[in-house]
Amino acid sequence: MQRRTFLTSLATAAFFSTILTFPAQGKPNMNTANTHAQNPTLPVSMVKEWDKIFPKSDKVTHQKVSFKNRYGITLVGDLYIPKNIRGKLPAIAVSGPFGAVKEQSSGIYAQDLAERGFITLAFDGSYTGESGGEPRNVASPDINTEDFSAAVDYLSNHDLVNQNAVGILGICGWGGFALNAAIADTRVKAVAVSTMYDMTRVMAKGYNDSVDAQGRLKMKQDLNTARTAAFRNNHADLGDPALHLTPQEQITAETPQFVREYSGFYKTKRGFHPRSINSNSAWTTTNALSFVNMPILQYAAEMTSPALVVHGGNAHSRYFGEDAFKALGSKNKELVIIPGATHVDLYDKQSGKIPFDKFAAFYKANLK
Q1: Which terminus of the chain has a smaller tally of CB atoms within 10 A, N or C?
Q2: Residue 68 falls within a domain, yes or no?
Q3: 32 CB-side CA count, 13 A
Q4: In a domain, 145, yes or no
Q5: Domain coverage including residue 361
Q6: Is 35 within a domain?
Q7: b/e for 32-43, b at 16 or more Cβ within 10 A?
Q8: What confidence tens digit (pLDDT) does each residue in 287-324 have?
Q9: Which UniProt keywords apply (predicted)?
Q10: Is 290 inside a domain boundary?
């Protein structure tokens, strides 16, 4: 195996396979903590204070909500409802990026779209943030796809929502899960993704598909060695946060540009949040196992829902969005490339490059 391929394999495994749960900002709710200890599927917390990385809008109302997915795990979300609502409204479930929490990018998207007339739900995926599930800091292509459908369940049963006009929006790695959910869930009337990743592809093949079969074998050997050890700790062993995402003070001239961008968001005041895996923790040591062996988007050609794929022109991940777009069978689909935008430029409003008008127009046209 070539040296570059081997190093890429190691970097990919470290970035996506290495992560503890973080305390909620402020004092923990001991009643919630005790209840979760008795039933690990219940919420880890439901912090009432506004602890997000973006300011609260005076154009919408906000409330914390919870709901269960099909596996019995309780998910926690932020529900945003436009003020002066009249009749039932279309709704959008939002999640992502991979390793983030609803207090970061997904909340920014959800609140902005709520200001434009949609009921929106930004939620934490299973085993992360305030949502339930143990061990902490685990991801799953199956369960995280299900999380989107669980959010559709919740919205479809809400008194203020038009259940025939529910869409979903996924950011970064949750873009792949959103597309995967829309392929299977016919209740999803429109799906949009922003700066998306196919997490199963990048974990199995590395960036730009640079990891070969020999590299994957070495990665799987390392992961399964870690699994034997993790068993002794109920599979809760976490990786090294510094290997998961390089801290600002450790960035050097050799640090890849995409890692610089991620660190510049999650590890600084711009995007840091104490419950975010990418801000101060890491995934479990065996997190990548199911991703390496379980590709999503296998039936992309059978998607019928309208789809919008948005990506940055200068994003290292652009190829994920373009390839997914080509594979989608939707007759109503559109690819939008934002000139000059990097992957992280579409995480928040700092660069001013998130095309909120485009997202809103897409949902208004397809959620009726």
Answers
A1: C
A2: yes
A3: 18
A4: yes
A5: 60-198+296-366
A6: no
A7: beeebeeeebbb
A8: 999 999 989 999 999 999 999 999 999 999 999 999 99
A9: Signal
A10: no
CB burial string 163-189: b at 16+ within 10 A, e below: eebbbbbbbbbbbbbbbbbbbebebbb
* 335, containing H or E segment: strand 333-338
192/325 Cα distance (integer angstroms): 11
Distance CA(98)–CA(2), nearest Å, equals: 29
Provide the number of structural domains found in the chain.
1
Helical segments of the chain, H only: 3-17, 30-38, 105-115, 141-156, 173-184, 199-205, 213-230, 241-244, 257-266, 277-280, 289-292, 318-327, 356-366
In angstroms, rounded to a whole number, what is the distance separating the alpha carbons of residues 280 and 283? 11
DSSP codes, 117-153: T-EEEEEPPTTSTTS--SSSS---HHHHHHHHHHHHH
Helix, strand, coil: what percent of the chain each, to 5?
Answer: 40, 15, 45
Q: How many angstroms separate the CA atoms of 148 and 18, rounded?
A: 24
Strands 89-95, 161-171: pairing kind: parallel
Per DSSP, 302 falls in state G
**Could you read off the pLDDT of 146-166 as tens digits, one per residue?**
999 999 999 999 999 999 999
- The burial of 123, by beta-carbon neighbours within 10 Å (0-12 exposed, 13-18 middle, 19 or more buried), is given as buried
Q: How far apart are CA 250 and CA 252, in angstroms?
A: 6
Q: What is the dihedral of CA 147, 336, 260, 242, to 10 degrees?
A: 10
For residue 97, say if its preceding peptide bond is cis, omega within 30 degrees of 0. yes
In angstroms, rounded to a whole number, what is the distance separating the alpha carbons of residues 306 and 168? 11
- Give yes or no for a contact between 159 and 76, defined as CB atoms under 8 angstroms apart: no
